[in-house]
Amino acid sequence: MSTTRTTPALGTFTFRPLDPLVDGELIHSWVTHPKAAFWLMQNHTVADVQREYMAIAANEHHDAFIGLHDGEPAFLMERYDPSKVELVGLYGARPGDVGMHFLVAPTDTPVHGFTRAVITAVMRELFRDPATERVVVEPDVRNEAVHALNAAVGFSVAEKIAKPEKDAYLSFCTREQFHAAIGAAR
Questions:
Q1: CB atoms closer than 10 angstroms to residue 154
Q2: Which contacts (CB < 8 Å, 24+ apart) does range 176-183 have?
Q3: Whole-number Å distance between alpha carbons of 39 and 101
Q4: Which is nearest to 86 in space by CA: 97, 72, 75?
């Protein structure tokens, strides 16, 4: 996967597979940053992060990607099959469901609208696959910032669920909800 999405005001977004050994230190700096507290990796070492992403790379139902902004690493995207990973037995999975996590790299020079542009690019990338019917997320109930972003791209909360590591809002976004939310041409 290495597709390109251009947002006129904010530049070009591309995706490439995450390489746990090459990208481990970079990703470590992102997932252990205080802004990434909901990733629950604050105390992980570089080796811990590499092991976590090697396990993802080895899992046929879970993928991780580095998101590039104008060619520079700027965010992380995970795609997974929620019937096999993360949400097994916690909801009635449907064919065409795709789970997603995303994380924007910390920065000292934030750009207004950047995180929303990232989640929009992530959603476009997921819906680029015609087999994707609906995107599923399970953010921590306390993560108000991501709830607002999810709503902005069309997610609706279905229910509160208890996962072993957190209470989460199980939320869904269909292709139609996404296009309606962003006002995009199909």
A1: 20
A2: 178/123, 178/127, 178/135, 178/153, 178/154, 179/154, 180/154, 181/152, 181/153, 181/154, 182/120, 182/153, 182/154
A3: 9
A4: 97
DSSP state of 161: E
Query: Which alpha helices (H) appear in 36-174, and where do they start and end?
Result: 46-58, 114-127, 144-152
What residues form DSSP beta bridges with 15? 67
Cβ count near 148 (within 10 Å):
11
| Count of Cβ atoms closer than 10 Å to residue 21 Cβ | 10
Instruction: Point out which residues pair with 168 in neighbouring strands.
Output: 140, 161
- Residue 94's Cβ-side half-sphere holds a number of Cα atoms within 13 Å equal to 11
- Structure-derived torsion over alpha carbons of residues 91, 164, 18, 147, reported in degrees to the nearest 10: 70
Per-residue tens of pLDDT for the chain, all 186 residues? 555 555 557 889 999 999 999 999 999 999 999 999 899 999 999 999 999 999 999 999 999 999 999 999 999 999 999 999 999 999 999 999 999 999 999 998 888 999 999 999 999 999 999 999 999 999 999 999 999 999 999 999 999 999 999 999 999 999 999 999 998 544
